[in-house]
Amino acid sequence: MSLIYITMDEIKVKVIRSRRQTVSLEINPGGSLIVRAPYDLETSAIDDMVRRHEAWIKKKQEEVRRKREIFQPKKFLPGEKFLWLGKEYPLQLVDRTVPTLVFTGECFELAASSGTSSRQVLESWFRRQASSYLTRRVAEIAQKASFKYQKVQISSAATRWGSCSSKGTISLVWRLMMAPPEIIDYLIVHELAHTKEKNHSRAFWQLVSEFVPDYREKRQWLRANGFLLNL
């Protein structure tokens, strides 16, 4: 895999080349354009694609800007709501040191002494839960759907919810623990499907649809609400 940064008509472009056969365009949370392309695709062809999709790119960048205005980073104040498996739960500050964070099923209890480390405390907790929950769900779904994979890794990727390596390593973002269980399961099926179909071909989506018939609705949910899955 290779990576370069270029600028086309004032549009910042991150070009990621790999052993893929197709080209894809995506806008990352910061509003920059990411182009995923084959190794042998000439830069002029990428430039032409960017120009042809300029209207779409600017529309998506505007959507990202609006989402950033809507989403407010957490301040970790009493009563503030945090997502867990698709539902919101209030934060309570409690007078104790250990454990620093407890989820009671009704609220998150955070040690008041956490102070400026509150974000780190919650992220560490979410990571631990993700390691347990996501690893278990991948195993369960893989066994039920007859997929084979090597291992599961918990990721902090900002632009992708998951990935599947050529050797069968499934990577999933810890922030998925804020999404509804059915969204998580869709992402798991999506990545497991890549163990059989390496790109997003028609065969790939047909395979996904065998296990998640309404995958289009799940993809749309992520596009519309994914920016909310954050601290």
Write the layout of secondary structure elements.
Elements: E1 2-8, E2 11-18, E3 24-27, E4 33-38, H1 43-52, H2 54-70, E5 81-84, E6 87-94, E7 101-103, E8 108-111, H3 118-145, E9 151-155, E10 162-164, E11 169-173, H4 181-193, H5 202-211, H6 215-225
Parallel strand pairs: 2-4, 6-8, 9-11
Antiparallel strand pairs: 1-2, 3-4, 5-6, 7-8, 10-11
Helix pairs in contact: 3-4, 4-5
Molecular structure report:
The chain has helices spanning 43-52, 54-70, 118-145, 181-193, 202-211, 215-225, and strands spanning 2-8, 11-18, 24-27, 33-38, 81-84, 87-94, 101-103, 108-111, 151-155, 162-164, 169-173. With 231 residues, it is α/β, with parallel strands linked by helices. Strand 5 (81-84) and strand 6 (87-94) form a beta hairpin. The chain is built from 6 helices and 11 strands. It has 2 domains: 2-70, no CATH class; 134-228, Zincin-like. The model has no long low-confidence stretch (mean pLDDT 90).
CATH domain fold name of the largest domain = Zincin-like
Q: Distance N terminus to C terminus?
A: 30 Å
H/E topology pattern: EEEEHHEEEEHEEEHHH
Structural class category: alpha/beta
Low-confidence stretches: none
How much is the average pLDDT?
90
Count of strand segments:
11
Quick one: biggest sheet?
4 strands, mixed
**Which homologous superfamily in CATH is the superfamily of the largest domain?**
Metalloproteases ("zincins"), catalytic domain
Query: How much beta, percentage-wise?
Result: 15-25%
Overall 3D geometry? globular
Task: Write down the Rg.
Answer: 20 Å
CATH architecture of the largest domain: 2-Layer Sandwich
Q: Please give the CATH class of the largest domain.
A: Alpha Beta
The domain tally reads 2
Give the strand line-up of the largest sheet.
1-2-4-3
Helix content, binned percent: 25-40%
Number of helices: 6
